[in-house]
Specification:
It is a single chain. This protein has one domain. About 60% of the residues lie in helices and about 0% in strands. It is elongated, with a radius of gyration of 15 Å. The model has no long low-confidence stretch (mean pLDDT about 85).
Length: about 70
């Protein structure tokens, strides 16, 4: 299930670019995005392991609202 891990590298590169070019708010948002991506990838991996072990149901799939921001 390493097929989605590449997105974390892309997000890290984007954050580095944003930081180096004075885009602080974007860099902070990319931090949040990275956390969400990592949580979803981990959840997929847990679900795959559970299926391999014959377990049913979804493990850790409820990350609704994680990293959400409200803007005026």
């Amino acid at each position: 299930m390493m097929q989605n891990d590449w997105i974390l590298d892309v997000l890290a590169d984007l954050k580095s670019f944003a930081s180096a070019n004075g885009l602080g708010a974007l860099a902070e948002q990319l931090d949040d995005t990275t956390l969400i991506a990592a949580a979803e990838i981990a959840s997929q991996k847990e679900e795959a392991r559970a299926q391999l072990n014959g377990e049913h149901g979804q493990l850790g799939s409820n990350i609704t609202g994680l990293g959400r921001h409200q803007r005026a």
